[in-house]
Amino acid sequence: AQTVTQSQPEMSVQEAETVTLSCTYDTSESDYYLFWYKQPPSRQMILVIRQEAYKQQNATENRFSVNFQKAAKSFSLKISDSQLGDAAMYFCASSGGYALNFGKGTSLLVTP
Amino acid sequence: EAGVAQSPRYKIIEKRQSVAFWCNPISGHATLYWYQQILGQGPKLLIQFQNNGVVDDSQLPKDRFSAERLKGVDSTLKIQPAKLEDSAVYLCASSIGTGGETQYFGPGTRLLVL
Q1: Taking the domains of chain B in order of start, what are their residue ranges?
Q2: For B29-85, how does the pLDDT look when each residue is reduced to its tens digit (9 = 90+)?
Q3: B 1-40 → A contacts, CB under 8 A
Q4: How would you write chain A as a 3-class SS string?
């Protein structure tokens, strides 16, 4: 079984600043994948970033990067140069190769 | 390319009534998922199809929920009879295969059971 924990129900960041969202997970799988998804108020879930657990290098996508600590089972998301459009619910998820197991989400507020 | 399509977007029914949701995945995607997202929570898998076969339906309340993907393309999810606790957003997602492939989500169907 896989569990995902997001300990920050809400976070706030000023425009142009950097924010880090936390995620820890537990899995018995040897091969697994980790994801961050963004869900704006319109509710369409969008992939932000994906990490294969066998890769030591942290994934990056433009202003989004992760800090993947495999031994600590930690997978945090860093958003640099925050923009108003980054405001959304952010879900951390894990997969052993099948369905996604989601955390409860972190609501990110971006202030001007 | 067209994304995952779902209909209807909103549905209001009374308890004990039945309801059906439809999903059309991205063309060529073999794997289709139905998730239930209750307000304030992350999505929870209800059922996963690989082509027209069921891979995982362990969390589907089979006494009231059913789903099919007859031709390995679009899918329907049905609830009969609905309960108040079924009020949620029902999300459909698809991926090319399994093995950690990225899942693409539809806009969801928001169900309110009165």
Answers
A1: 5-113
A2: 999 999 999 998 999 999 999 988 999 999 999 999 999 998 889 999 999 999 999
A3: 33, 35, 40
A4: CCEEECCCCEEEEECCCCEEECCEEECCCCCCEEEEEEECCCCCCEEEEEEECCCCCCCEECCEEEEEECCCCEEEEEECCCCHHHCEEEEEEEECCCCCEECCCEEEEEEC
Using an 8 Å CB-CB cutoff, list chain A residues near B44: 102
Per-residue pLDDT tens for A80-99? Answer: 999 999 999 999 999 987 78
Q: Which of A48-57, B53-62, B85-94, B96-105 is predicted with the least confidence, judged by mean pLDDT?
A: B96-105
Angle at B95 between CA B92 and CA B98, to 5 degrees: 120
**Interface touch A32/B100, C-beta < 8 Å:** yes
The residue count of chain B comes to: 114
* DSSP structure class, residue B28: T
Q: Please state the CATH superfamily assignment of the domain spanning residues A3-111 in this structure.
A: Immunoglobulins (2.60.40.10)
| Architecture (CATH level 2) of domain B5-113 | Sandwich (2.60)
Listed by start position, the domains of chain A span 3-111
Structure tokens at A62: 């433009």
